[in-house]
Each structure stands twice: as C-alpha cells, then as structure tokens.
C-alpha cells in the first residue's frame, strides 16, 4: 500500500494568518525569515505594489484565493504517540493559513492573464464543469 500524508490537527486551535509571497527568484532558505525587514512594499497609484529585493525592483499584485479555498502552510511533523499506522506515512502539521497570494514580477507587475492568476481560475472552473446537470434543463438541442 502507498504511503499517505496525515494531518496532525489540534482541535479548536486557531492558526495564524500568514502572508504568502511568490517571488520571481530562488531563495535558498527553508524556514521562517524576517521578510518585512527586507521586502518593504509601497502601493502604486493603480492598485499595484512595488518593492525591491536584494536591489532588484519588483512589481506585484495581491491575488485573493477563490471563494471556498484557503491556503495552508504545512510542516513535517512526528507521528502522535501510540500511532500504530504505516511507518511510511508522512505526518504534517498546520503552521498557518492564508487567503491572499502576493505575486511578484521582476521589474514589472505580473500579467493578470498568466501565471498564478490564471491557475487560480481553474478551481472554480473545475467545480462548474463537474457540477451535476439538472434533468429539467431544456438546453439540450437536437443536432
């Protein structure tokens, strides 16, 4: 049997809201970072965002997640005491949540018709095309 991913959840625990930043570069660090100290965001006149990171100008915009969706930051965790499950199972713990992704582009604001903005449209579209069709639909036309 394939290994599974299991969630370590604390009932009733409130997870912190975290900012999600999608940078147009690779950052060789995996863990918490003082982002606010290095990424100082200035709002633009048209609703866009401007900042610089390591001397490079960034243009950005906030992308809210579609209704019914929530982003979750997960971290690997240890199995709970007394767990007798598959030793290959991977346990994860919720560290925080987010409802908005700030997408950044190098020297310009990312296109609203590409990248993450386009990907965020797929969830609601998939729900719409897979939703049940009512029997009383008179949209069925004969060819």
Keywords:
single chain; 143 residues; mainly beta; Lipocalin; five-stranded mixed beta sheet; three-stranded mixed beta sheet; 3 helices; 13% helix; RNase_H2_subunit_C; Ribonuclease H2 subunit C; RNase_H2_suC
Provide the fold topology.
Elements: E1 5-8, E2 20-22, H1 35-38, E3 42-43, E4 49-53, E5 56-64, E6 71-77, E7 90-98, E8 100-106, H2 115-119, H3 122-130
Parallel strand pairs: 1-7, 2-8
Antiparallel strand pairs: 3-4, 4-5, 5-8, 6-7
Give a brief description:
This protein is mainly β and 143 residues long. The chain has helices at 35-38, 115-119, 122-130, and strands spanning 5-8, 20-22, 42-43, 49-53, 56-64, 71-77, 90-98, 100-106. Pfam families: RNase_H2_suC (PF08615).
Helix/strand structural class:
mainly beta
Number of helices: 3
Strand-residue fraction? 25-35%
Shape: globular
Roughly what percent helix? 10-25%
Low-pLDDT segments, ≥5 res: none
> Would you tell me the overall average pLDDT?
86
How many beta strands in the DSSP annotation?
8
Backbone CA Rg? 21 Å
Organism: Grus japonensis (Japanese crane)
Protein name: Ribonuclease H2 subunit C
InterPro entries: RNase_H2_subunit_C, RNase_H2_suC
Pfam families: RNase_H2_suC
């Amino acid at each position: 049997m394939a290994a599974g991913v299991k969630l370590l959840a604390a009932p009733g625990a409130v997870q912190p809201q975290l900012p999600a930043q999608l940078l147009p570069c690779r950052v060789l660090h995996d863990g918490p970072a003082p982002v606010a100290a290095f990424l100082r965001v200035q709002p633009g006149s048209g609703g866009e965002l401007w900042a610089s990171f390591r001397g490079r100008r960034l243009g950005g915009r906030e992308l809210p997640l579609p209704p019914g969706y929530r982003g979750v930051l997960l971290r690997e965790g240890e199995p709970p005491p007394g767990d007798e499950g598959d030793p290959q199972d991977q346990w994860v713990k919720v560290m925080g949540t987010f409802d908005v992704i700030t997408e950044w582009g190098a020297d310009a604001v990312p296109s609203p018709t590409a990248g993450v903005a386009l990907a965020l449209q797929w969830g609601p579209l998939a729900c719409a095309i897979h939703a049940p069709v009512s029997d009383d639909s008179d949209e069925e036309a004969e060819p």
